[in-house]
Amino acid sequence: MSLTGELGKYQNEVTSLSALSLGMYERIFKVYTQAANDTDKQFYFYNILNKIQFPENLDSNFFGLYDVVGRLPLTTVSYRIYDNIHLWWILYLNNLEVLRNKFYVDGGVQLKFIKPELLGVIYVEMTNSTVFGNRHF
Amino acid sequence: MAGTIKYKINNAEYEAKFTLSTAPKSPDGGGEAASPGDASGGSQGGKEINFSKSAIRGMDIEENYLEPFTNGNIYINNPLDFIEDGQLIRGDGRDKFTIKFEAVDDGEGMKDAPIPLEYNFVISSELNSTGKTDRLNNFKSYRLLDRNYFLLSEQIPYGQRFRGKVGCIIEDILNQFGIPNMFTDIGDMKIDILPEHVLPPSTFRYSDLIRYLLKLNYKAEGKTYVRLFLNWCRRCKHYKYEKLSRPFLDNVARTREGFMVDDLVAKAGVNENNAATAPSITDTNINIAALPNTDFSTPMLVYTNTYLNNLLVSTYDPILGEHIMNEIRIAKVKPEWTKLFVDPFPYIGGAAQPWVVLNGVKTTKLFRNLGFNFRPIHMARLAEAELTTNMTFFNLQLGFQTLGNTDRQPGEFMDISVARDMTEEKGINPFGEDEVKHRSDAKLLGKWFITKIRHEFTTAKVDNYTNLIQCIKPHIGPGEPVPPDNLG
């Protein structure tokens, strides 16, 4: 028997797993279970067929600019901007042209970031698509 | 506008007009405007006193979602008994006191004109405070009664009976007295089968009858029943009669403003217990729109045992000659109530959770008896409507005092939010290892339904206008799980 059912569940709906905080990218993935060979044990895995894409024409008032000093991983930059290492993906997705497929940012690069007070708008969209199934309130 | 007074309060400019007039005609209509919002009505041919700025010492007006008729007090300087030098007060309800108070400039020009605080009152009583040394220091305070209430205080003709849908009866009475109204919902309670009718006692006035009928109505909504409420809407200038679930289902559109509960914030965070409309959609400044105080409470044992329990509705069927007992279980009603009063509220972190904590005793042993004299089917539904109303209003409560704004009125929502995370990695001590989880955020933050607003205006030392606001919220945010219902 699957622990999360055929359609899967979001991690915050599975009480036996720890809750994900608001800004974690994993919130958009459904969790499924798979039994390992020759055992009854079930293991959780994410279905990663879901992604977030920011519109290219976002209002410039949404953004601030940050000059990276020294070669740093995105998690560290995220911590310096947001006090939170989990928001690295927001920096990555908004600076795709500069970062391409790099996780480390070279010194002297200027990154644009969504202002901390406006992060709620992103979280609301994530919640709306996962918890509320894009219901219109 | 003749007789208009200007005040500067908290850097905003207000205009006010306080007028005492004597109606030339009787209060039972007589072609006179009955609208509390119509400040000009009723003075044709009568005398009028416009009070000056120095005359007004203060006023307070109380608007209540659970009470259709507004009342207030006004405090006036009365040196040498000047008030009645202008005009003798009749004292029979024909003296009308009109109040109009509105913000005309908030310091940056008004973008959206807020609704004025505008009412027509009848003076119901007066109190005098006399100076100890001379007659120059006399004050007078008038107790003000909603003029609509006074219009409805006419006696009901002897023997008049009322049948039909309760909502229609109320609507007809308001129309009879020319009181503007908009009945979005009528309700399902119908008084139509003999010997069912409402025969008011001879002491009843129309206002008493309306109060009685308001208690009787219900409306089917989903798989449960809700009560209906009558309210004066200053925004649309008429009485609104609608089912209680309507504003809750429409909560996003009816959210007017937001407040932050934290003090000055250095770095903004996002709390999962903030409503999805806060603080970015609702007009809020996260740095200065702070609440100075919050009188926040949870319903405790006395309340929950009295109002949140199972119901036994005993009625009598006169045709079959049966005594009937209907049992309404709160545990069965709760999921249906949740769909109407909790599920429509989106939060940043997820779905709202109902705050009606049950246990084994409440679900199996605790009953409240209700008995009515109408048809059993109506009475069971009415009792269930009473229960859903209790679950909504006898719930989390918030009271606070803040700078005045005439644009607020009961029946609308406000967001209370905070610009920090619910879980902070470090607490007050920046060198500490332990994270701090603000569990109270789940209860305190969110979208609150305004039930009562007291507009307090004083000019005693400085011109000052504040609002005392009371709200309810029947749910908590998604940040913390609700306690389980399966305790013994």
What does this structure look like?
The complex is a heterodimer of chains A (137) and B (488). Chain A folds into 2 domains: 43 residues, no CATH class; 66 residues. Helices cover 23% and strands 20% of the residues of chain A. Chain A contains 4 helices and 7 strands; from the N terminus they run βββββαααββα. In chain A, strands 1-2-3 form a 3-stranded antiparallel sheet, with no helix packed on it. Chain A is globular and about 55 Å long. With 488 residues, chain B is an alpha+beta fold. Chain B folds into 3 domains: 143 residues, no CATH class; 84 residues, no CATH class; 226 residues, no CATH class. In chain B, strands 1, 2, 3, 4, 5, 6, 7, 8, 16, 17, 24, 25, 28 and 29 form a 14-stranded mixed sheet that branches. In chain B, strand 12 and strand 13 form a beta hairpin. In chain B, helix 3 runs antiparallel to helix 4 and helix 7 crosses helix 9. Chain B is flat, with a radius of gyration of 25 Å. The chains are: A alpha+beta (137), B alpha+beta (488). At the A-B interface, helix 4 of A face strand 20 and strand 21 of B.
In summary, what is this structure?
With 137 residues, chain A is α+β, with helices and mostly antiparallel strands.
Key descriptive features of the protein:
heterodimer, A: 137 residues, alpha+beta, 2 domains, 3-stranded antiparallel β-sheet, two-stranded antiparallel sheet, 7 strands, 23% helix, B: 488 residues, 3 domains, 14-stranded mixed β-sheet, 3-stranded mixed β-sheet, 10 helices
Based on Cα principal axes, name the global outline of chain A: globular
Query: What characterizes the major β-sheet of chain B?
Result: 14 strands, mixed
Q: Helix coverage percent of residues of chain B?
A: 10-25%
Contiguous uncertain segments of 5+ residues of chain B: 27-44
Enumerate how many helices of chain A there are, as a single number: 4
For the largest interface, the chains and their residue counts are: A-B, 20 and 23 residues
Total DSSP E strands of chain B: 30
* Strand-pairing-aware structural class of chain B: alpha+beta
Structural domains of chain A: how many: 2
The radius of gyration computed from the alpha-carbon positions of chain A, rounded to a whole number of angstroms, is 18 Å
Largest pleated sheet of chain A: 3 strands, antiparallel
Topology of chain A as a string of helices (H) and strands (E): EEEEEHHHEEH
Shape of chain B: flat
Q: Helical segment tally of chain B?
A: 10
Unreliable segments of 5+ consecutive residues of chain A: none
* Content-based structural category of chain A: alpha+beta
